[in-house]
C-alpha cells in the first residue's frame, strides 16, 4: 500500500480504481470488438456497430442512427451458445472495470433456435455461472421493446413473470426501451408487472413527449432511464417537473449515450447538472458501452470533470446508486460494506490527493491496480 499512498492519482485512475455500481446497461449494446469477432461479425459490421463514436463532430446526430445498429448485435446472438458467450463477455468487461454490482437488461427474443423463455434461461444461466468466477453481483432486468404490439408485449410479460418466479434472486425488474419515437407507455401492462413483484425502470423523455412523460410519472416507476426532456430548461413542461419533484424518482443518467445520440449537445450541458444542484436522486450509467465505446469509469470521469465533482461527492453518488438498485436489503448492506472498506482501508489518502486542478489523462498505471488488491474483500462478500 505504501507506494499507493505516496502516489498522486489522476481523476481518470481514481474512477478506474473505485468500486462502481451500474444500473443501466443493455446487453446487446454492450458488446466489445473482440466478442463481436468471436461471434462471427466481420470488420464492416463491427465498425458499423461502433460508427457513432467516429462521427462525434457531426452537427446533426440523431437517435435514429443509433437504433439501426442494434440489429448487428442481434444477428450475432441468435443462438443460445452465442447469447451465452455475449453475456459472459459483458459481465467480464464490467468486472474488469471494477464494477461490483451490475444490473444488466435485455429484451427476450424468440429466434429459430430459441424461444423467449430459452433466451431468458440462457442469460440467467450465464449470470449464475459467472457469479463465483468473476465475483460480481449481477441482476437481470427484462425489457419490453416499444415496437412490440400489445399481444406480443403481453406474451413477453407472461414469460417474464414466470421466469421471475423461477429465478427471484436474479430477475428483479422490467424495462420499457427501444426507439422513443415509436409506440407508447402502456400503464396497464406495467401495473401487471408491478403487481407480480417486478421493479420497474422506464426509459422516459429521451425525446420531447410531455404527454407520455405525464403518464409515466403518474404511474410512478421505481426508476427512470435518461429523462432528458423532463426539466423545463430541456423542453419538459413545468407541470411534469412539479410532479417529478413530488415523486423524486431516481434517474439513470447516461451521459455519453445522450451526447453521441445528440439528445444532449455537450457533456457540460447534460441535465445531470440540475439533479446534482437540487440533490435529486440519480445514478451514473453506460447504456450501451459497446456502441458508444465507453465504460463505467469513463462515465464517472465525465461527471467529475464536467461538473467539478469532488472524489468524496462522487463516492457519495455511488452509495446513492446502491440505495436505488434492485438488490435485496441484505445485498445492499454487503455492497455498502465493500464501498466502505475500499474507502477506509485503501483509498483514504487518495481523497486528499485527487483535485480537479490536477486532472491529467495519464495512461493506466498497472502497478496501481496490483497494489489495490480487492480480492480479500470479495472473499468476505461471498
Ligand atoms: P438488448 O435488449 O439486449 O437486445 O439490447 C439492445 C436494445 O436495447 C435495443 O434494441 C433497444 O431496444 C434498447 N436500447 C439500447 N439503447 C437504448 C436507448 O438509448 N434508448 C432506448 N432503448 C435502447
Ligand atoms: Zn437505455
UniProtKB/TrEMBL annotation:
UniProt keyword Glycosyltransferase present: no
Keyword terms of this UniProt record: Hydrolase, Metal-binding, Nucleotide metabolism, Zinc
Domain of life of the native organism: Eukaryota
GO molecular function terms listed in the Swiss-Prot or TrEMBL record: adenosine deaminase activity; metal ion binding
Obligatory cofactor(s): Zn(2+)
Database matches in Pfam families: A_deaminase (PF00962)
GO biological process, one term: adenosine catabolic process
Domain Adenosine deaminase: 19-340
Catalytic activity of the protein: N(6)-methyl-AMP + H2O + H(+) = IMP + methylamine
Family membership noted in the UniProt record: Belongs to the metallo-dependent hydrolases superfamily. Adenosine and AMP deaminases family.
Protein name, UniProt field: Adenosine deaminase domain-containing protein
Originating species: Psylliodes chrysocephalus
